[in-house]
Amino acid sequence: MFSAARKSPVPCVQCAGRCLRFPRRSRDGIRFASTFPRISSALDTPPPLSSQQQTLLDSLHSARSVAFAGGGATAIHRHTEINKKVLPRERLRMLLDPDSPFLELSITAGHELEYGSVPCGGSISVIGRVSGTLCLLSVTEATVKGGSVYPISLQKQLRVQQIALKNRIPIVYLTDSAGAFLPLQSQIFVPGGATFYNQALLSSKGIPQLVVVCGHCTAGAAYIPSMADEAIIIKGIGAVFLAGPPLLKAATGEIVGTEELGGADVHCRLSGGTDHYVETEEEAYSIARQSVVAFNCLPSPHPQAGSGSEPCAPAASLSSYMPVEGGPVNMSQILAGVLDGSRLRKFKALYGPTLITGFGHIAGRLVGVLANNGPMSSDAALKGAHFAQICSTRGIPMVFLQHTEQAVGSASHDTDRDWMRAIAKLVSIVSCAKVAKICVIIGDSCGMVGSAMCGPGLDADFVFSWPSARIAAMDAEGGYTTTDEGEIRSPCQQAELFSRCGDKASAIHCSARLLDDGIITPEETREVLRQSLEACMEYRSTQAPKPDTGVIRM
User: Fold this and answer.
1) Among 123, 148, 193, 508, which has the highest number of CB atoms less than 10 A from its own CB?
2) pTM score, two decimals?
């Protein structure tokens, strides 16, 4: 029996009209997104921004300003006026499609590390379009320490390669590096080898890599163009060698110029180590754009996501919902400011209410949402495991909004065991889900619940933090109240310990060490999620991953 609302059958084209079929609905479901219920609090008036929240935003803007300044005025003058090179961010502008949006990762990497600040981690990592093709760009920030490679620089490059491998995104490297910072070589040598391993692995999987040699590639950096599929070198400023002229003179006494040792003529005419000879940087990026066209990277035939309807709650209001010092979060209101039309179709709304699960759209793309809404109970964890299985089986990307409030203790050992088992199930299912997973840490990301909600370490496609985020093994209350022997610390002792350790859980501290893919303001959240989903889905298979089992109800 058919519903009266269903359309009438029409002749089947494939059978030349011999049978009837019903018209198929749009695969993307965007036309039907308006059927999802609107979040009830979507039109609520946001609270005013507190002084503590403003301080968190100011700290982020200050750290970003340091990163954008690069190596400072003296280094910028040397780079542009003496060495006659284009600044790294201007190189990006020349390569990316005009007026196209791009997503920069880990802007505050390298901020105030133990061995000193390395602005932007010594490199700029961007996801953007070149000649219409979505690419990852890794650009040496040559004004920072002369482009020397620090441990944080390698971590950032390894993360770029990891994202490329997972999502099959081609990489364009703009290299201008002095090689490893030798006083820290014990922290550089092994991860440096891993970058070359990844280059080989990317190539074996048919993921294109292009290098523009826009400066010196010395020592280990010389292998980046050598292992890439294609390399462009600029006459006069580009050079590739294991040891530059000063080191060669010190070791052998031989005096050789840069161009004769490893310049564009040597590698394009003699060694064959590079493929395209250009006279200027402008020409180099023009050739690079042509090379990207020849990548032949065709997007997967996913239904095209539209812009989607704007949320009812304005993005600018989200900063008012940042938690302060682990306080509660109005997660429904945050979702209302992120999802298309502020609409969410909840799943198991009455069961395990401290975890919100449901389906919504972000810029027209269907996503499964898991958002903390209080201390994670065992029921909430089981609900999350059930919902994550459904998303994985149906090929629906998952978005996690994380704030791990402290769980309420229980006097029952049986209840404790139930809670641990439930969290373990959620960790296992989220870890093995074969769909895109993006996590935004709103507040605390602590303990096993932080891992269960696809936090750092669970191999998410992307992890971003709000300025209010705190990443730690334990939350403040659970971690600082007792000693190793189980004794209760006095309030003064707790305050002293928190002052020493609390800052090491802050978003600035953790993002500087690449525990996430960058700190974003609440206002940027929807756009960052849109671009992250685009990066995850651009080259993924349209087929939902084949599940090993059916959905097992928890």
Assistant:
1) 123
2) 0.89
